[in-house]
Write a structure and sequence with these properties.
This protein has 218 residues and is mostly helical. The protein is built from 10 helices and no strands. The protein has a single domain, classed as MetI-like (MetI-like fold, Orthogonal Bundle).
């Protein structure tokens, strides 16, 4: 029971931090792509859209090569640590959050931006106002980013090593138990993972729908 608890806590910590980091990068970058007009914008959008469908095992391979002892960041000794999993999951989630943020802001009435600037709002004030206006799809972007990493297994296995008490998370534990033929234990861990994912997404969805109801009030 203690092992299951530690695995569960580590899963939430790793995926939660990766999602937060992807939000810190994806929100401003998605805003820049939605509102900015600069050379290479279309190419960057294409890269982001491609990144939204990156296979986790390819991400795991790239991060493993980066963090390997002979790799560019090998001296940091991050391979087979929770930070390696966080980095891999961040690479997976960041394009999702960035792409959906750009779409959310592009769907707003383009005249709103001009109206805010015309009323004397600074650029940061305008961006904050646009984020508030698009908060419902932005929460959906957060949900999608979290969902893309909490159930991910390939990259976590490759860069974390599934080390007991150190880097074993729910998804890699399920794979391990299945490989040993312990299907009941694997099913129990799978049910726990589904329950946690449901509860977190339920909380975010309730916040989203509460905002929708407030927005619809006269």
């Amino acid at each position: 029971m203690n092992e299951v608890f530690s695995i569960t806590v580590l899963s939430l910590e790793v995926s939660g931090l990766a999602t937060i980091l992807s939000l810190l990068v994806g929100l401003p970058l998605g805003t820049l792509l939605a509102l900015g007009r600069f050379r290479g914008r279309a190419a960057l959008l294409s890269v982001i859209n491609t990144g939204m469908g990156l296979p986790p095992v390819v991400v795991g391979l790239a991060v493993a090569m980066l963090l390997w002892r002979s790799g560019p960041l090998g001296d940091l000794r991050l391979i087979y640590t929770p930070w390696a999993i966080i980095l891999a999951q961040w690479v997976i989630a960041a394009p999702v959050v960035t792409g959906l943020t750009a779409v959310a802001l592009q769907q707003l009435d383009p005249r709103l931006q001009l109206q805010l600037l015309g009323l004397g709002a600074s650029v940061p004030q305008m961006v904050l106002a646009l984020w508030r206006e698009a908060r419902l799809p932005l929460i959906a972007a957060l949900i999608a980013g979290f969902g893309s990493v909490i159930s991910e297994v390939g990259a976590s296995m490759m860069v974390g090593g599934n080390i007991r008490g150190q880097t074993r998370v729910l998804t890699t534990a399920i794979v391990l138990e299945t490989g040993k033929g312990e299907f009941e234990r694997a099913l129990a861990l799978g049910g726990l993972l589904l329950l946690l994912t449901f509860l977190i997404n339920l909380a975010l969805t309730l916040i989203q729908q509460r905002g929708a109801r407030q927005r619809g009030r006269p």
